[in-house]
């Protein structure tokens, strides 16, 4: 799944959720790899607005990704 995130002073980058770490049930961690090779880990509240950037095409995509990565 692709996300889009703006980094002030650096531009907007596309990234992919490469892993969902479910080791802490209440705070799953979403591992993101960006097109420039940088990586970061985000929580659901941080990932959700980035997915919404793509609009209605992502309806149901979150559930699909969750199933594929578990």
Tell me the helix content: 10-25%
The parts where pLDDT drops under 50 for at least 5 residues are none
C-alpha Rg (nearest Å):
12 Å
Biggest beta sheet summary: 4 strands, antiparallel
Report the average pLDDT across residues: 84
State the strand order across the main sheet.
1-2-3-4
Q: Would you count the extended β strands for me?
A: 4
Number of helices, where a helix is a run of at least 4 consecutive DSSP H or I residues: 2
> What is the ordering of alpha helices and beta strands?
EEEEHH
Distance between the termini: 14 Å
3D structure, described in words:
By secondary structure, the protein is α+β, with helices and mostly antiparallel strands. Helix content is 24%, strand content 40%. It is built from two helices and four strands; from the N terminus they run ββββαα. A four-stranded antiparallel β-sheet has the order 1-2-3-4, covered by helices on one side. The longest helix is centred in the last third of the chain and has 9 residues, at 44-52. The protein is globular, with a radius of gyration of 12 Å.
């Amino acid at each position: 799944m692709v996300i889009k995130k703006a980094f002030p002073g650096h531009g907007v980058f596309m990234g992919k959720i490469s892993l969902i770490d479910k080791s802490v049930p209440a705070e799953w961690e979403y591992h993101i790899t960006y097109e420039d090779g940088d990586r970061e880990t985000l929580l659901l509240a941080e990932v959700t607005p980035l997915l919404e950037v793509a609009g209605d095409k992502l309806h149901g995509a979150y559930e699909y990704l969750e199933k594929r990565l578990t």
